[in-house]
Amino acid sequence: MSAVLCVVCPKENAHSLVSLMPRNYCRCSSGNKLSSKLSFSSGVSAYSSAVANPSRSVQEWVHEVVLKQADLMREHRRKTAMDLEKPIENDRSTNWNRLNEAFERCREVTAEYAKTFYLGTLLMTPERQRAIWAIDVWCRRTDELVDGPNAIYITPKALEIWETRLNDLFEGQPYDVYDAALSYTISKYPVDIQLFKDMIEGMKLDLRKSRYENFDELYLYCYYVAGTVGLMSVPVMGIAPESKASIESVYNAALALGIANQLTNILRDVGEDAIRGRIYLPQDELAQAGLSDDDIFRGKVTDKWRSFMKGQIKRARMFYDEAEKGVSELNLTSRWAVWASLLLYRQILDAIEANDYNNFTKRAYVAKVQKLASLPVAYARALMRPSKLAKFELGW
């Protein structure tokens, strides 16, 4: 689950993916399409990039997105059940050689830039593996537009072109092999284009916004750039057939994990972001703690800073706690990857504490030995049903 399921969060692994970025925006010719059946509806109208009704909180607006995704999953389940009664036709229109090549390229990228998560995906069914790799690569490419080595050259117009390309992708008109892998994926799973558009909206925020007045604003940003990834991933990860949880609760958990991971990124990268003139911490909460932007740019750890950071870390952990409620509701083959992601990312908060809250000049990270030690723990939890997991955590 980016629970969910977070495949990747922006600001993480900011290595160069230049070779993955589009060198032009010319769509593939019709003769190069992987499948003539890659045609999709354009979807419902997009949500406004801002909350249209001031009387609604950002959390309420995002909750409506969650409900919409749950409805799509519910409808997909109904249609799938009906399709079981139909004869299976041999799909001869798809160029499987080219499609397999596309998914293999996605696999290579995920294996390179998300090693631990990739290891967890190896327990998934081949179909789920390929789909989650395709989503992972699209998210990384999108993030690279504003956080990659060529970010200085990116303009709002470039992101508009990227969004146009996304629309074409959802219409079955992929531009390259990576697009083709995602185009095929969204034809098989109930994934809404709005989630992808919202992620692009988060990239647009990074081009024009470097301060967040309160947590409401920051929450929206975290939803855009990371919560969306969790919501994209739920249909692919799948919900366990024996799960008694509501679909909405699983999506809520997925959203929570995405928010938690992004908050962790922000807390880890305070010093690095400050160098670029960005401060993602809520301005009103900084002021309440007796801190200002100047304190962050000076990068000195004080008692005020320690106290402030304790509150921020506590909030991030609350989101992780909420996320845990949904991980064990996922399909059994998908749980290990999500548990590994959750446990390892949460340990970054422990590392910040171990560094005496110095996230100005010390980068909090999880040592390789800790990562390896976490994998069997994640695997054990993946095998537990919710009731057993609750007893395990309580020490019964």
From TrEMBL:
It is an enzyme of class 2 (transferase). Its EC number is 2.5.1.32. It catalyses: 2 (2E,6E,10E)-geranylgeranyl diphosphate = 15-cis-phytoene + 2 diphosphate. GO terms for cellular component: plastid. Signal peptide: none annotated. InterPro entries: Isoprenoid_synthase_dom_sf (IPR008949), Squ/phyt_synthse (IPR002060), Squalene/phytoene_synthase_CS (IPR019845), Trans_IPPS_bact-type (IPR044843), Trans_IPPS_HH (IPR033904). Pathway: Carotenoid biosynthesis; phytoene biosynthesis; all-trans-phytoene from geranylgeranyl diphosphate: step 1/1. It holds the Pfam family SQS_PSY. One of its GO terms (molecular function) is 15-cis-phytoene synthase activity. Keywords: Carotenoid biosynthesis, Isoprene biosynthesis, Transferase. One of its GO terms (biological process) is carotenoid biosynthetic process. Belongs to the phytoene/squalene synthase family. PANTHER family: BIFUNCTIONAL LYCOPENE CYCLASE/PHYTOENE SYNTHASE (PTHR31480). This is 15-cis-phytoene synthase.
